Amino acid sequence: MASDRIVGIDLGTTNSLVAFMQGENPVVIPGEDGSNLVPSVVALDERDQIIVGNAARKYLIETPERAIYSVKRLMGRGVEDVRDELKLFPFHLADDLQAGEVLRIRLGEKTFTPPEVSAFVLRQLKRNAERYFGAPVTKAVITVPAYFNDAQRQATKDAGRIAGLEVLRLVNEPTAASLAYGLDKKQNGIIAVYDLGGGTFDISILKLQDGIFEVIATNGDTHLGGDDIDNLLLTIALDDILGDLKIDLRRNAEAVQALRKAVIDAKIQLSQHTTVTISIELPGGKHYAREITRENFEGLIQPIIDRTVGPCRQALKDAGLKPEQIDEVVLVGGSTRIPKVRTLVEELFQRKPHVDLNPDEVVALGAAVQANILSGGSEATENMLLLDVTPLSLGIEVAGGVTDKIILRNSTIPASATQHYTTQIDGQANVAIHVLQGERELAKDCRSLARFDLKGIPPMPAGMPRIEVKFLIDANGILQVSAREQRSGTEAQIEVQPSYGLTDEQVEGMILDSFDYAEEDFRQRQIIEARSEADTILAALEKGRKSPAWGVLTRDETKNIARLEKALLAVKNADDHKVIREAIDALNQGTMRLAELMMDSAVATALKGKTMEDADVGEGPTAPHPMAKAEFE
Ligand code: ADP
Ligand code: MG
Question: Would you say the pTM of this structure is higher than 0.85?
């Protein structure tokens, strides 16, 4: 059964996690370093190997052109969409991008699409889970922000596929957080989910009716979070250092990074303690120390956390609710550990928020609950349906460049709607269908999702054809559009391929590429193994030189061994495992008689009544090559 296990994944902007259901409770699976959070950072090391998570973080400073973080901001988006992100984030895009093309990000000499970069993070989580279970993991539930549009959801699914995961369901993050708290068991109520993470703020209002969740409003700020607090503290510290110590650190990337780490540590400690001291050695032997009280800190961050108030009020307004109508408040995101944020939320919604679960784990835990429901593993929740809403209206362009909405924003999904259209010109055989997303009246102000043609309508006077356009959003929030001319019975059905999504061929290509990577991974591993085997045999040879057996060898034999040893040392660091292996084999051959002699003397010693261990030859060759077959282990 272990191989059928479905995991829940929070693919975050700052941090990602994987969780699963252990008996009645969801638990987060830690990585090899023991940490539950895998920073969503991907880097390319000196050997062009992909590095993910904590280990990748140092590349952000040392070789920023070979590292990427916050890739979630680019998922499912086009060149046009990300202009603002590019002003705020040091993304290095490929230079030759055409409008409408899928974005590609540079990492060293290579380029990757956002789903490919996310797939590296997902693959790390998959590996962590596989190590934990000791069995393959191939199925997952992945969470996405409630406001993610069709293309962003599609891109997330693509990332899963590229990573070798079948994505059984995409779940909205606030819905997952509510599930983690088991709020579904309450049957009815209104839930506010306040999510302040590293770089984004989201507020979602959910309605729970007969155990069914519905997202009734969402709002937020895509550039607000813990990073803003870090930047503020960093600026203050840098100014301090310039003012008091007359050192301008700003040009020293490494020193700035060390200082950033110190202020983040201080911020995190201030969630527990009432005073902390930032203390750090500076280049040139100087020392910077500054005490910050929690009161200090709260004053400093007030303007930042106040920016969450407007979106919360707007979400309540959109939902048509007053604060006192909120029954439950759920905190999500690492930054809601800050006590001042908690009081702000309590004041806003006039209710104590749920704080029992770790706010940076709660989304992954909920994803695991959802995974468990899908695997039929939970009786209690078996009949439970999870409903979400579509964040933006969807429609098509009609005569005069006007938007005609077919599914309105905040509609519960899965959703479907049908509208009828006709032709404008006599004998018109083809109709262009332009699928739009957004609230604006004119097509040019909305986001273009897809275009396709309904072809082969039999000649009829204008206004006669009856064209039925059907929109269907599935449970994952993914849109399909079909069109059909009813009068003639002519049927033409076309599925939407979102403009900024990836085609099936592209995804297939990426899956194949990932095999190429697997090959590269495998090659690297073989090199590493060959090198370590070389070390073993060289160490064994050292031992052999000191053993009595060495004296029995002829001059020619010892000379030959020395030559082979030199040859192995010369190729040991080569990038070709075959070359290393050849040298190892040659040395093995050349030392065969030495191994035999050592073995004989060990046996002789043993026969004299000593144990093998006392004979001090036991630990010699241990690797599985001829010299090791002495089996002294
Ligand atoms: P995301 O959802 O954006 O991937 P997380 O929910 O993991 O991110 O939140 C990460 C943010 O939470 C970071 O800015 C981190 O510094 C902040 N954070 C984590 N723990 C604490 C704490 N104890 N006090 C204050 N901020 C914290
Ligand atoms: Mg998050």
Answer: no
